[in-house]
Amino acid sequence: MKLIGSHSPTRSTFLKISFFNVENENFLFLADSGRHRFAAEEILRIGSDNIAARVFTYRELAAATGSFSSENLLGEGGFGRVYKGQLKVTNEVVAVKQLDRKGLQGNREFLVEVLMLSLLHHPKLVKLLGYCADGNHRILVYEYMPLGSLEQHLLDIKPNAKPLDWHTRMKIAAGAAKGLEYLHEIATPPVIYRDFKASNILLDEEYNPKLSDFGLAKVGPVGDKSHVSTRVMGTYGYCAPEHAITGQLTKMSDVYSFGVVLLELITGRRAIDLNRPKREQHLVHWVCQIKMVTFHALLRA
Ligand SMILES: Nc1ncnc2c1ncn2[C@@H]1O[C@H](COP(=O)(O)OP(=O)(O)OP(=O)(O)O)[C@@H](O)[C@H]1O
Ligand SMILES: [Mg+2]
């Protein structure tokens, strides 16, 4: 098991797992490992003709974010820091994600994100406005989501903040499910998202959710195949056990992660919370125990 990410260890989202199993990349130009280092140039070459996303210079994005000033920092994930910015030419307010993960994996996630979000369009997916690949810089520019992530409203809430009401929780669950449904049932070929979790569900000013972070997404099985084989990646606590064990990825792996987020929405607890007593640390296990206790209590009644 390999941990990937640069979060503070107190945050559950730090726990990204990667078991190395069979590698079967869907993007042909990424499949040949000997060509990996040329992938960025390749996608940019393909992109300049076929990808609608705008190409930004580093200078433009530095100007938009006050030179990536800490005052504009919105958050930080395993991929790098995210800043609020305002584009000088159009005055658009945007979110700018600066990748700090060096090497193959970071480059690959950047390319997959640009490709996926350029091809997929749905009201429940965050919009990629453009990207910057000046020199060694790898930066993604998204529509700005004013209420940040579901994680901030559900799991990282400040002591005096009002918790999300039930209606809003269900609205978020239903909207995020629509995003997944689009990826699984409408996109052709289908896409397996692989990173469904509270921090990747972003919220607009009316708590409408949008899925973000497609760097790990995979084109799903086509024809009569039931799964794709891949190394296991995702976030510990949200990852379907059968996927972790076999490396076989199906749409159901996303459905499992959706179930975990639904439990988080219902209970207000994190998928993994090491600050709780041992038997309550893993949300799914805890809920299963409750179910058994309730079941036995019902039998005794
Ligand atoms: N488009 C956006 N609009 C507004 N805020 C955003 C946007 N994208 C990301 N953020 C903020 O930046 C934070 C970090 O996002 P990021 O996707 O880099 O990391 P993460 O989802 O927390 O972790 P991981 O890297 O494991 O996915 C988010 O939790 C959110 O608060
Ligand atoms: Mg994210």
Task: Provide an overview of this structure.
There is one protein chain. With 301 residues, this protein is α+β, with helices and mostly antiparallel strands. Helices cover 36% and strands 18% of the residues. It has two domains: 133 residues, Phosphorylase Kinase, domain 1 (2-Layer Sandwich), CATH 3.30.200; 151 residues, Transferase(Phosphotransferase) domain 1 (Transferase(Phosphotransferase), domain 1), CATH 1.10.510. It has nine helices and 15 strands. The chain has a six-stranded mixed beta sheet with strand order 3-7-8-6-5-4, with helices on both faces. The N terminus is likely disordered. The site of adenosine-5'-triphosphate has 26 residues, from strand 4, strand 6 and helix 5.
List descriptors:
3-stranded antiparallel beta sheet, 2 domains, 6-stranded mixed beta sheet, 18% strand, alpha+beta, binds magnesium ion, disordered N terminus, Transferase(Phosphotransferase), domain 1, binds adenosine-5'-triphosphate, Phosphorylase Kinase, domain 1, single chain, 301 residues
